[in-house]
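Field reference: sequence -> structure
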Amino acid sequence: MSAKKDPSVLQGFKAFLMRGNVIDLAVAVVIGAAFTNIVNALVKGIINPLVGAIGTQNLDNYSTCLSASCHGTHGIQLMWGSVLGAALSFLITATVVYFLMVLPMSKYLARQAARKAAREGTKEVIEVTELEVLKEIRDVLVAQRSAGREDH
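Structure field:
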């Protein structure tokens, strides 16, 4: 009985892997990981030095001590600089993804939808025109029949 279950489980797994969504997701994860390196380099190479013009070049150094004294690992420190660095990384990532991927894709899809609507509109006009022509032909044939009956 277990021999029957194994092929169906393997076939199901194979079908799962071959679906387009899984492949797209895998590609997105790989590209996202590579993109993360670019964003981190941007934050480390450009944003941190700009912040460093005001204070320290490493945002991780910005903190607030909640206890009486903070030396090394003693005391309670709020590392708000790390949070700020992560927020900047997220903001840069979101901005680049939106302007380089989401916005162009939505414009492309809108153009495709407009073209499809235009094609369907033209098709309707052609269908209506053909219907009108057929009605005119019918009317002419009816008129010819009527005229033919009057002559006899």
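Note: The chain has a mean pLDDT of 79.
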